[in-house]
Amino acid sequence: MALTLGISNLNLSGSTHVPAAPKEDLDKLPLDLILPTEILELAETTSEGSLIRALAFPWLEILNQLENNPDLIHDFSQSPRKFEEFVAASYEKDGFSVTLTPQSGDGGKDVIAEKKGFGAFRIIDQCKAFCKGRAVSPNDVRAMMGTLYRNTNASKAVITTTSVFAPSVADEWKDYMPNRLELRDKTGLIEWLQGLKDR
């Protein structure tokens, strides 16, 4: 059963893709009601996943709410796929060509962000939508580094989380940071997003 709240095209029945709501409707909604809204379009299917295009209004409204209350980022733990889509849309805002990988069988990478041509650069990102208090473990980071080395065409691995990293992680991988590995925790994620706001 769809919950409309006076918004005819915002279906909150739990389906993965809900039509994007107009900006004036999004301005009135809390984050937990915006998350079911579509925040990107799938442009083309490739062997690695789907090329995407970000939808500006939903992406920006989520960012506005996160700026007002950064703890809302933990709402993504209820919808990890939506977090992957939000991160993919953010890379696209940052000027990358972006592929969102399938929900299963992705080989340890959720988002692939590329800049082609002179100085080409390819990032593989694993998105961890964790609740408050749950840290990304050392084994999670080791697994991602294994993914980086299996993907010989990747320039860098990034782990983006709504939470934090276990205390030992940064020290274990300090020789690889920031050129080969980036650990983007909740604070770093919000800082990155704020830098994209006016692009």
From TrEMBL:
Transmembrane segments: none annotated. Keywords: Endonuclease, Hydrolase, Nuclease. It comes from the Bacteria. Residues 79-193 form the Restriction endonuclease type IV Mrr domain. The keyword Nuclease applies. GO terms for molecular function: endonuclease activity. SUPFAM superfamilies: Restriction endonuclease-like. This is Restriction endonuclease. It comes from Roseobacter sinensis.
